[in-house]
Amino acid sequence: MKYVLLGSLSAEWTARHDERIASAKAKLDELGITLESNYYIQGAFDFVDVLEGEPEALLAFSVWYGSQGYGKVLTCPAFDSDTLARAVKNA
Hints:
Layout: E1 2-9, H1 11-14, H2 17-31, E2 34-40, E3 47-52, H3 55-67, E4 71-78, H4 81-90
Antiparallel strand pairs: 1-3, 1-4, 2-3
């Protein structure tokens, strides 16, 4: 399943970008999660990732990320337009 992860970085880890990224990518690999895209944004969040993986793996990653002190994340399931169309039909 696809997920959108919205993240805010802690001040400490903003300056340690390469170390944080290497650690996060290793954890994603360990959990079997694919990072499809990553963008740094302006506004309420600092970055947005599109990820694919099992729900429990994404939950584990979100908990792990915060426990490392990297910052906070909001993890949201993402649905394509065909899935939405089927849901609307069944509503």
